[in-house]
Design brief:
InterPro entries: GspK, GspK_central_sf, Pilin-like, T2SSK_SAM-like_1st. This protein is an alpha/beta fold and about 325 residues long. It has 3 domains: about 1-85 and about 280-315, Pantoate--beta-alanine Ligase, Chain: A,domain 2; about 90-95 and about 110-200, Ribonucleotide Reductase Protein R1, domain 1; about 215-280, no CATH class. It contains 9 helices and 9 strands. The protein has helices at about 1-45, 115-125, 135-150, 160-165, 195-200, 220-225, 235-250, 255-260, 260-265, and strands spanning about 65-70, 75-80, 85, 205, 215, 275, 280-290, 295-305, 310-315. The strands form 3 sheets. A 5-stranded antiparallel sheet has the order 1-2-7-8-9, covered by helices on one side. The chain has a two-stranded parallel ribbon with strand order 3-4. The longest helix is centred in the first third of the chain and has 45 residues, at about 1-45. The protein is globular and about 80 Å long. The N and C termini lie far apart (about 50 Å).
C-alpha cells in the first residue's frame, strides 16, 4: 500500500506538471497572437500616411502590466524593435550569389580597410564602456566576428579562421555563414562573458541581410555609435542621452530631422544616412507567464511583411 501510494503521488505530480507546462505554453502562444494583432493594427494605422514610421509611442511599444489569470498567476508581454539594434550579419558584405565576402587581398591595412558598418560596431563596443575594452581590442573583435561569419579560410589582419579554432581545446570550426543566433558570439575567439553580457542587448542577427537601423527606436548606447566616419570613437554618454531626450520631447522625430539636428551636424553624421531608417519589419516579443509559482518565458522573432506577420524563431531560452 505504501508503494502504491508513493507511485500514485509521483504520477499525479508528473501529470500536474505536464498540464501546467502545456497551459503555460498556450498562454505564451496567446501572447504571441496578441503581439501580431498590435503590429497588424499599427500597419493599418499607417495606411494612407504621408510618412509611415515606427517609433516608441505606437501601440506595439506600449509598456504592459501583469495580466491576472483566472487560474491564478499572471501573463506579461513586451515587443521590442529588433531594427533598433545593431545587425551583426552586416559585418560581412553579402555577394549576389548569397555567399559572404572574405577579406580582399588587395585591401589596405589599418583602419581604412573597415566598412562603415564595421566602424560603427567598433564605436558600439567602445560605447559599452567595458573595463579593458579599447580601440585595439574592439578592432580584433570586429575581425574575429567577420572571420567567423565569412565563407573563406583567409584570416583578416586581426581575426581568426579555422586553424585558430582547431587549436582550441576542444577544437571546433567557425560557422562560415550568417549568424542565426546572438549566442553564437560566445564561440568567437576573443569574446568573453563580460563582453557578451554587455553587448547582447544591443545586437541582433535579424534580418539575415539588409535592414536599416531605426533611429526612432534605437537606445542611447546604439545611437552613440553614429559618430562621423573619420573616427572610431563613439559619441559621449551625455550626447547619447541628449539624443534620446530630444526624440522623446519631440525635438526630432524623423531621420531627416536627426541628420540635420545641431548636435549631429557637429559630428558630420549626415554622411551615414544611407544605413539608417525610420521603419521596421522585425520585432521581438518577450512573453512571461507564472502559473502555480512557476515562471516560463517565450522569445518570438516576428517578421512583418505588409499585413502578413510570420513567426521566424521561437525559443524559451537565450536568443
Amino acid at each position: 500500500m505504501v508503494g502504491l501510494q508513493r507511485e500514485f503521488t509521483l504520477q499525479l505530480k508528473r501529470v500536474g506538471g505536464t498540464l501546467q507546462q502545456e497551459q503555460a505554453w498556450q498562454y505564451l502562444r496567446a501572447a504571441e497572437d496578441l503581439a501580431k494583432i498590435a503590429l497588424r493594427l499599427d500597419t493599418r494605422n499607417d495606411v494612407g500616411s504621408d510618412r509611415a514610421t515606427d517609433h516608441l509611442q505606437e501601440i506595439w511599444a506600449t509598456e504592459t502590466a501583469n495580466y491576472p489569470l483566472a487560474e491564478g498567476g499572471w501573463l506579461r508581454g513586451s515587443i521590442e524593435d529588433l531594427q533598433g539594434r545593431f545587425n551583426l550579419n552586416g559585418l560581412v558584405e553579402a555577394r549576389s550569389d548569397g555567399a559572404t565576402d572574405g577579406p580582399d587581398s588587395n585591401v589596405r591595412q589599418g583602419e581604412d580597410r573597415l566598412t562603415a558598418h564595421q566602424r560603427q560596431f567598433v564605436r558600439l563596443l567602445l560605447a559599452l564602456e567595458i573595463p579593458d575594452m579599447d580601440e585595439g581590442q574592439a578592432l580584433k573583435l570586429v575581425d574575429s566576428i567577420a572571420d567567423f561569419i565569412d565563407t573563406d579560410d583567409a584570416p583578416r589582419p586581426l581575426g581568426a579562421e579555422r586553424d585558430a579554432y582547431q587549436r582550441k581545446n576542444p577544437p571546433y570550426r567557425p560557422a562560415n555563414r550568417t549568424l542565426t543566433s546572438v549566442t553564437e558570439l560566445r564561440a568567437v575567439i576573443g569574446m568573453n562573458d563580460d563582453i557578451y553580457q554587455a553587448l547582447a542587448p544591443y545586437v541582433t542577427v535579424w534580418p539575415e541581410r539588409g535592414g536599416a537601423l531605426n533611429v526612432l527606436t534605437a537606445p542611447a548606447t546604439v545611437l552613440r555609435s553614429l559618430n562621423t566616419e573619420t573616427t572610431l570613437q563613439p559619441l559621449t554618454a551625455l550626447d547619447g542621452e541628449a539624443l534620446v531626450r530630444g526624440r522623446t520631447d519631440g525635438e526630432w522625430q524623423s531621420l531627416d530631422e536627426l541628420t540635420t539636428e545641431t548636435l549631429l551636424e557637429a559630428y558630420g553624421i549626415d554622411n551615414v544616412a544611407g544605413e539608417l531608417g525610420e521603419r521596421s519589419n522585425w520585432f521581438l516579443l518577450t512573453a512571461r507567464v507564472e502559473i502555480a509559482d512557476t515562471e516560463q518565458r517565450l522569445y518570438s522573432v516576428i517578421e512583418r511583411d505588409g499585413d502578413s506577420l510570420i513567426t521566424r524563431y521561437r525559443t524559451m531560452g537565450d536568443l
